[in-house]
Amino acid sequence: MGTTSDAEDIVQDALFSAWRSIASFQGLSFRAWLFRIATNRALDHLRSRKRRPELPLDPPDDDDVTWAEPVAAGPDLTQLVGDREALAAVEAALGSLPAEQRTALLLRDVEGFAYEEIAVITSVEIGTVKSRIHRGRLAVRNVLITRGWRGSDG
Amino acid sequence: MQHPHAELSAYIDGALDPAARAAVDGHLVTCAVCRAHVAQLRATVALVQALPDPVPSRRLVPRLTTAPAWLAPLRTIMTLASGAAVFLFLASALATNITPLATSGAPGTTAREASGDTAVKGQAPAAQPAGAPTVTPAPAPTASPYGAFAVAPSSSPAADNVVRGPATAAPDKRGDTSTGASAAPGAALNPPDAARTTASVPQPSPLLSPWLWLALAIICGAAAIALSRRLRASV
């Protein structure tokens, strides 16, 4: 969300609005339902703010997304989990993503929702979820790779 | 098969249907590039997951129930009570004239000192008109009080005050207060003793204990602060 206080305002607002509209809760798991409300609030807020120009929302095709190659040999990506510098780079990379990609990626990797749930939470097709998650991850990966960290050879 | 780049994220998430998954599996066997990309994506996911969880800086669940109506008046009462207790603490501390000596000594000394002071002050104006013209100066007005003090068995400073008070403040009413003292050195023992025995009868009442009021002030103050926070936290 940019700032902590904005994020907290959104969460509080979302919780309050969830409480008021609790009668409309159905189907979805309660957690997904809460995330749906909060996510919508957050995205609305970001759209209404429009302070910084968003990156293009829909690049043409996922196959066109480039895979950056390492510029120099560095530590293995898998070694970076405890590296504060690397985590800061990841955070910055996430911050530079389009909000929709970041939302899908965090719902998947941090909150652990399934693709189907993310589709319901964000009100888009499952193919869009797949595409957003992949592009988001690739962008983060590219940031790390271009900083000199290399992926393991798998 | 072409590189299934766009499928690799869904692949590591287990979100591909069985046919697509099998196709990617088959491709990975032969393609080192895609294997490296899978490993990089997995490492990226691990890094995202390793980010520290944001911790809210304040309570985010709104209080949907407003504070009970009696909370605000109670806070006011607690605030006033703590102020009053502070005042009473100071007042009782002054009244009992707390000094390190007085508190460390016998409990009777403070009361005795206070009563001795008031007794002397009350006596002074009355002694002035009646005693001053008629009394013949004591044989040794300066020596006798100090003599009495020297003989007095009590070495407490309170007793010192009782005896010295009249001597220095109003030496001309000496005939009234210390005739017995000046008459004989043996009799000089009596006034301090009498003062002690009579004055130690009223023990300091618990209402006069400054520490009681101080404790009350702290308790009421803490309660007022807690209530204020509770009020501020509610909508």
Number of helices of chain B: 12
Q: Per the principal axes of the C-alpha atoms, what is the gross shape of chain A?
A: elongated
Which H/E pattern describes the elements of chain B? HHHHHHHHHHHH
Question: How much helical structure, as a percent, in the residues of chain B?
Answer: 55-70%
Shape of chain B: rod-shaped
Would you summarize the structure shown here?
The complex is a heterodimer of chains A (154) and B (235). Chain A has 6 helices and no strands.
Describe the structure in your own words.
The complex is a heterodimer of chains A (154) and B (235). Chain A is mainly α and 154 residues long. Chain A contains six helices and no strands. In chain A, helix 5 (115-122) packs across helix 6 (126-146). The N and C termini of chain A lie far apart (34 Å). The relative contact order of chain A is 0.15. Chain B has 235 residues and is an all-alpha fold. In chain B, 68% of the residues lie in helices and 0% in strands. Chain B has helices spanning 8-12, 18-30, 32-50, 71-95, 100-104, 108-134, 143-151, 157-169, 174-177, 179-183, 190-199, 210-233. In chain B, helix 4 runs antiparallel to helix 12 (210-233) and helix 7 packs antiparallel against helix 8 (157-169). The longest helix of chain B is centred in the middle third of the chain and has 27 residues, at 108-134. Chain B is rod-shaped and about 100 Å long. The two termini of chain B are 61 Å apart. The A-B interface holds A 4-5, 7-8, 11-12, 15-16, 19, 61-63, 65, 67, 76-78, 80-82, 86-87, 90-91, 94, 105-106, 108-110, 114-115, 130-131, 133-134, 137-138, 140-141, 144-145, 151-154 and B 5-6, 8-10, 13, 15, 32, 35-52, 54, 56-58, 60-62, 64.
